[in-house]
Amino acid sequence: MAQSLAAPTHIAIVMDGNGRWAKRRFLPRLAGHKQGVDALRRCVKACAERGVSVLTVFAFSSENWNRPADEVSGLMELLARAIGREVSQLARDGIRLHFVGERANLTASMRAGLEQAEEQTAHCTRMVLNICFNYGGRWDIAQAAASLAARGEAITPDSLDAAMALSHVRDPDLLIRTGGEMRLSNFLLWQSAYSELFFSDKLWPEFDEAALDTAIAAYHGRERRFGLISEQLAQEPHALARA
Ligand code: IPE
Ligand code: IPE
Ligand code: MG
What we know:
single chain; alpha/beta; Undecaprenyl pyrophosphate synthetase; 6 strands; binds 3-methylbut-3-enyl trihydrogen diphosphate; binds magnesium ion
């Protein structure tokens, strides 16, 4: 039974399958990542048009450093160039950019690029786009705990939540993974506790508006109970959903 037909407020996506997309076409993996940037541009536009408030995407994981060196450097360059090219249009479209992840081991020029893009879109209010880059769910939980410990504060679910890298947004309502794998691969381990999961067999470069609508339609078909029973939902909808 559908609980509500409201568009999911926060959609999170593991953008997986770029490498396989390229391999099937006898292209280098980086060609797949380039197509992946185009797919992301289309997805951002489609989400904004559908009234989504927050889109969080997984672009590079803590573990992706272990890939072949040329793929890693290619991905770094691709991100740097994509930001430079896209940020003005994002600002015009009202999209506020946040980069979520460990910045300490990025180059100084990369860090400056991320900060500049965040500043250029800081006034935007139509939709938040979180790009998880050099991100891992375990990193986020550990860094939140470490910052609380350094301040001598108690570690509770609420204090940890407030110290997380995604504390500026609510938890994702719908978490999509493309590419056919049914795992989280260290994405949003804490925040996905009550997210509706949707796995698409489409490779990320092929993920289009119709595929997004299929995922949103599946979300509408779910009943989010947050530990309650169905009969309680009519009386106190979302009572236990974290704000
Ligand atoms: C996801 O695509 C993008 C990144 C991890 C950077 P992949 O590169 O993992 O593509 P597949 O899974 O090998 O097809
Ligand atoms: C997850 O995909 C990371 C990103 C999409 C950025 P991976 O391709 O790295 O995940 P595994 O290795 O299949 O679990
Ligand atoms: Mg992959």
